[in-house]
Amino acid sequence: MLVGSHSVNLFQARKPSFRNYTSPLNPLTRTPSSCSYSASAPTCFPIKSSSAAAAPSKTELTLANLDKLLPKSAPPQPPQLDPQPGIEDRKKKATMENKGKGFLEGLSLSRLWPQVKAAAEEMSPRHLKTLRRLLSKTAEYSPRNNLGSRWREYHGSNNWAGLLDPLDENLRREVVRYGEFIQAAYQSFHNNPAMSVEETQMPRNVALPDRSYKVTKSLYATSAIGLPDWVDDVAPDLGWMTQRSSWIGYVAVCDDRREITRMGRRDIVIALRGTSTCLEWAENMRAQLIQMPPVEEGGEEAQAKVECGFQSLYKTPGAHVPSLSQSVVEEIKRLKELYKGEELSITVTGHSLGAAIALLVGDELKTCAEDMPPVAVFSFGGPRVGNRGFANRMEAKNVKVLRIVNSQDLITRVPGIFVGEGVLEEKLKNSKIADMLDKKMPFAYSHVGTELRVDTKMSPYLKPNADVACCHDLEAYLHLVDGFLASNCPFRKNAKRSLVRLLQDQGSNVKKLYISKANNLSSLNLEREGLMATCLPSPS
Fold first, then answer.
1. Which of 246, 312, 323, 352 is labelled catalytic?
2. Distances in Å between the alpha carbon of 167 and those of 160, 171, 453, 480, 491?
3. What pLDDT score does 53 carry?
């Protein structure tokens, strides 16, 4: 290969050198020499640093332009101490709260809050576990303490002084227990409302709530009013509604030694149901007062009067059964002789019509024989029965009466002229106005005994505007008694009584909140388990 003479200088030998030359592409570096290339003829010649600074090359200009275009990273800043820690966090929190506040204001929660608050207050007790317990069909009873030597006090020897307000827990349990005896009478009648001649010869099978008692006698009430025979021809399937004599209750006696020891005596219970047949309703309408036969001539007992319809049901004998009065007196005399020498008590309990007749039973039993045991009456939702003379007669005979009254129950204000309740009625009873009304007015009725007043509006489960049937219903009464603490206290939170029967009998009067909760609980299925499936609903 031939090389021109003009190119010989390019290939001259150089001394070997280990000098490190930096890249010419870096404009920040200053090199002692670099290569410059020309487009026409690439020539390598030494360039001094002074000439490079005076006349920058195209490469340097390009790199300078790129340096302007590309983003530069900020130099690291030294850490600064915050003189007040948490200020930034508080600012961020305040900002979020302002945003949330504006959002909540947009929802207008001020209008929704009263409804939410009301729903929260209705949901008492708060825990679903407690509501599930109340909706359970497994009965949970209040503690049944040993009454022992105090049984006379709970039976009314001191007119229940100091036990009603606040309500003593032992008395509460006794009141509920006697109410359940009436429920057993309702259930037994509804299971078999028709009466046969063969049935009257032996006691009816009654499913008692307390197994320590046994039924010894069935009781029948007969109406003095008769309906024409063509009524039975028109409605033969409803003959029990028009029959003159009907099964109304029973006599039971405690037969368990452990229970006798707990109560301090052997207890005899007379339980009477409320109105269920057409003729019983007809007797209820006979509200005129009639004279009671005096025990002794003269005295205040000669002024005692009672309602005509109640006396008729109590004293009228039937075609195949004796009168209710005769049946009760004979059975009590028999039991008194059977358990002679033992400590005995007689408790008469009834609801509605049964509560009215219970007073007549207590009045007669106290003087039907010598050395009669203590007689007490526990009445639920009972109407007025007689005048002030009858009330004085019961008091003179030392018959103790505890009237359980619902303030919203209209039945407790009839029959007669309604002039007041509670304290007002007690004041009128001992005034001259009462004497004038008793002598001049044919409907001057007066209540008897001591009063335990409850109120439907105190229950967190029942609607405050519950209807008349609910306010008079026996299960509603037992529910209110079980939750009653005192007249100035709310419904007790540890109430034991199940709500199942209340939901079944008075579902339309239970607050919707608990209806929905009951429907959501899978453990509650009334139709599948068939609670009281064979029992008609209470006519009250």
1. 352
2. 10, 7, 11, 12, 12
3. 46
155 among known catalytic residues: no
Place of tokens 């407790």: 412
For the chain, the distance separating the N- and C-terminal CA atoms, rounded to the nearest angstrom, is: 134
For the segment 345-374, the average pLDDT, to the nearest whole number, is: 94
Q: What global pTM score does this model have?
A: 0.70
Q: Which helix (H) or strand (E) holds 42?
A: none
Active site residue: 363, 409, 438, 482, which one?
409
State the DSSP string of 326-376.
HHHHHHHHHHHHHTTTS-EEEEEEEETHHHHHHHHHHHHHTTSSTTPPPEE
- Rounded CA-CA distance 69/58 in Å is 17
Among the listed residues 363, 472, 473, 482, the single catalytic one is 472
Specify whether the CB–CB gap between 268 and 346 falls below 8 A.
yes
Tokens of 2: 């031939």
Tokens, residue 118: 């009301």
Mean pLDDT computed over every residue of the chain: 76
Better-scored residue on pLDDT, 532 or 73:
73
For position 277, what pLDDT does the model report? 87
Which whole number is the average pLDDT over 3-20? 50
Among 482, 514, 483, 481, CA closest to 500:
514
Q: Which amino acid is at 24?
A: P
What angle (nearest 5°) sits at the alpha carbon of residue 467, between those of residues 464 and 468?
125
For the chain, state the CA radius of gyration.
Answer: 48
Residue 49 bears catalytic tag: no
What is the tens place of the pLDDT at every residue in 493-534? 888 888 888 888 888 898 877 777 666 664 545 444 444 333
Average pLDDT over residues 107-124: 49
Q: Sheet harboring 266-272: ordered strands across?
A: 213-222, 245-254, 266-272, 344-351, 375-380, 400-406, 450-454
Structure tokens at 359: 């007073």
Rounded to an integer, what distance in angstroms lies between the CA atom of residue 36 and that of residue 57? 9
Query: Is position 479 annotated as part of the catalytic site?
Result: no
Give the range among 24-33, 379-388, 415-424, 457-466 with minimum mean pLDDT.
Answer: 24-33
The pLDDT, as a whole number, for residue 49 is: 44
- CA 113 – CA 369 distance, rounded (Å): 67
pLDDT at 414: 87
- Those residues whose C-beta lies under 8 Å from the C-beta of residue 211, and which sit 6 or more positions away, are 256
Q: Are 407 and 453 in contact (CB under 8 A)?
A: yes
3 state SS of 114: helix
Within 10 Å of residue 23's Cβ, how many Cβ atoms? 8
Q: In the structure, what pLDDT confidence band is assigned to residue 180 with cuts at 50, 70 and 90?
A: very high
pLDDT value for 442: 60
